[in-house]
Design brief:
By secondary structure, this protein is mainly α. It contains 16 helices and no strands.
C-alpha cells in the first residue's frame, strides 16, 4: 500500500492519529492563512467598508456550502468504513456515487448562489453602504461553487482512506496562488473586493484539479474512473442517511449564524469589521478542532469497519483530549494578544474595540467548542449522524436565536451577541458528555451502512 495511504486499524493509536491529523492541521493552517491574507489585504488596502462587506458574507457562504459539505462528510464515513473492512467493490461504488453527486450539486449551487445572494443579503439587513461590494463579492464567489464543492468531495475521499498528505501539498500551492493573485488583483489592478473573490475561486479550482488528477492516477483501490461516475441508488441512499443530518445541521446552524450576523449588522460598519476580523482569528482556534475531528471520524469509521471496538474507544478518547487541549492553548493566546491581532486587520480604534470585546468574551471557552465537535465527529464516524445534528440544532440554532431575540431588544447591547456562543457551546458540551457516557455509541447504528 502506498505510503500516502493510512489504514488505521493497527499500530500505535496516538502516533497514527497525530500523523494523520498533522497534514490536515498544516493544510487548514495554510487555508486559514490565505483567507486571513484576503482579509488583511482588503482591510488595509480597501478600508473598513470593504472589510465589512467581505465579512458579512461569511455566514451566508457557509450556510449554502455547509449543506453539501455535510453530505460529503457522510460519504467520507461510508468510504472509510468500506476501506477499513476491505470491501473494495462497495468502496468503488461509494466513491463514484459521491463524485457524481458533487458534479450535480456544483451546477445547482452555482445557479442558486448567484441568483439569490443579493436578496438574502437584503434579508440580512446588510447596510446600503456596503451592499454593492457584498453583492459583488458573493456573486463572484458562488460562480466558483463547482470548485469548492468538488475540492471538498475529493479531499473527503482521500482523507477517508487515510491520505491527508496530498491535500496538504495541493492546498499549499493554491494558497500561494491565492496570495499572489490577491496582491495582483487588489493592489495593482484595483479590482476591489471582486479581485479577492476571483483570486479565491481560481486558487480553489487549482486545488480541486490537483486532487482530481491524484484520484485518476493512483494505483490504489480508491482510484477514480471517468466511465464509472454515476449515481448508484442504493449507495446514494446510504450516503444520504449519514450525510443528510450533517448537511442539514450545517445549514441550519449557519442560518442561525446569519441571524447573528444580522444583529451585528444593526450595530454598523465598525462592528461588522471588528467582528469579521475576530472571525478570522477564531479560524485559527478552529484548526486543531478540524484536524482532530477529521482524524477521529476516519479512525472510528475504519476501526468499526474492521470490528476493532476496544481500539475504537481508545482512539476516541485520545482524539477528544488532543482536540480540547490544543484548541484551549490557542484560545489563551488569542485572549492575551487580541488587541494586536485585531489591529493587524484594521487600525481603526472602534474596529479594534469591537473585535477585542468579542475575542475576550469567547476565546477562553474554545475548549468547549472543541469538545462538542470532537464528540460529534466520533458519533458520525460510528454512523450516528442524527445525534450530533439534534444536539447542535437544539443549542446552536434554537437556543442561540431565541436568546438573541429576547436579549437584544431588551438590552440593545452587542455583548449579548458575543456571549451567546460560549453559552451554547457549554450547553451542547454537557449534553454530548451525558450521551457519550450513557449510550453505547459503537453498537450498530440505526442509519444502515
Amino acid at each position: 500500500m502506498a505510503k500516502s495511504v493510512q489504514l488505521m486499524t493497527s499500530g500505535p493509536i496516538w502516533k497514527q492519529m497525530t500523523f494523520f491529523a498533522m497534514p490536515i492541521f498544516l493544510g487548514n493552517l495554510f487555508q486559514q492563512m490565505y483567507n486571513t491574507v484576503d482579509t488583511l489585504i482588503v482591510g488595509n488596502q480597501l478600508g473598513s467598508r470593504a472589510l465589512a462587506a467581505v465579512s458579512s458574507s461569511g455566514s451566508l457562504i457557509f450556510m449554502l456550502i455547509g449543506f453539501l459539505g455535510g453530505i460529503a462528510s457522510g460519504a467520507g464515513v461510508i468510504v472509510a468504513r468500506f476501506f477499513g473492512a476491505g470491501d473494495h467493490n462497495h468502496l468503488q461504488a461509494a466513491i463514484h456515487t459521491t463524485v457524481a453527486f458533487g458534479l450535480i450539486a456544483g451546477v445547482v449551487m452555482t445557479i442558486a448562489g448567484m441568483a439569490f445572494s443579493p436578496q438574502i443579503l437584503r434579508w440580512m439587513g446588510t447596510p446600503e453602504t456596503v451592499m454593492a461590494d457584498s453583492v459583488t463579492y458573493l456573486t463572484l464567489y458562488f460562480s466558483g461553487s463547482m470548485a469548492f464543492i468538488m475540492y471538498n468531495i475529493f479531499v473527503g475521499i482521500l482523507q477517508a482512506v487515510g491520505d491527508s498528505r496530498h491535500p496538504l501539498y495541493y492546498l499549499i500551492l493554491s494558497s500561494i496562488v491565492n496570495l499572489v493573485l490577491d496582491i495582483l488583483f487588489i493592489s495593482y489592478c484595483n479590482m476591489g473586493v471582486g479581485g479577492a473573490a476571483i483570486a479565491t475561486v481560481i486558487s480553489q479550482f487549482i486545488s480541486a484539479l490537483l486532487c482530481l488528477i491524484q484520484l485518476l492516477r493512483t494505483k490504489e483501490v480508491y482510484r477514480l474512473y471517468w466511465n464509472k461516475i454515476r449515481l448508484d441508488p442504493k449507495m446514494f441512499r446510504r450516503i444520504i442517511q449519514i450525510g443528510l443530518p450533517s448537511g442539514f445541521q450545517n445549514s441550519v446552524i449557519a442560518f442561525a449564524n446569519v441571524i447573528v450576523q444580522s444583529n451585528i449588522n444593526a450595530f454598523g460598519e465598525m462592528a461588522m469589521a471588528g467582528y469579521g476580523a475576530y472571525s478570522k482569528i477564531e479560524g485559527f482556534g478552529f484548526l486543531p478542532i478540524t484536524s482532530f475531528t477529521l482524524a477521529l471520524t476516519t479512525f472510528v469509521g475504519q476501526n468499526l469497519g474492521a470490528q476493532q471496538y476496544t481500539r475504537t474507544k481508545k482512539g476516541a478518547r485520545f482524539g477528544i483530549l488532543a482536540s480540547v487541549i490544543s484548541a484551549e492553548v490557542i484560545g489563551i493566546l488569542t485572549f492575551i494578544f487580541a488587541p494586536q491581532l485585531i489591529a493587524a486587520f484594521d487600525s481603526t480604534p472602534e474596529v479594534i474595540q469591537f473585535g477585542v470585546q468579542k475575542a475576550q468574551t469567547a476565546a477562553l471557552f474554545f475548549f468547549l467548542l472543541a469538545f462538542s465537535h470532537a464528540i460529534a465527529a466520533v458519533l458520525r464516524g460510528a454512523g450516528k449522524a442524527t445525534v450530533p445534528m439534534l444536539i447542535m440544532l437544539a443549542f446552536w440554532c434554537v437556543v442561540r436565536v431565541t436568546f438573541l431575540s429576547i436579549t437584544i431588544p431588551l438590552t440593545h447591547s452587542i455583548w449579548m451577541v458575543y456571549i451567546v456562543y460560549p453559552l451554547t457551546w457549554f450547553l451542547s458540551s454537557i449534553t454530548f458528555l451525558i450521551y457519550y457516557k450513557k449510550v453505547n455509541w459503537m453498537e450498530q447504528p440505526t442509519e444502515s451502512l
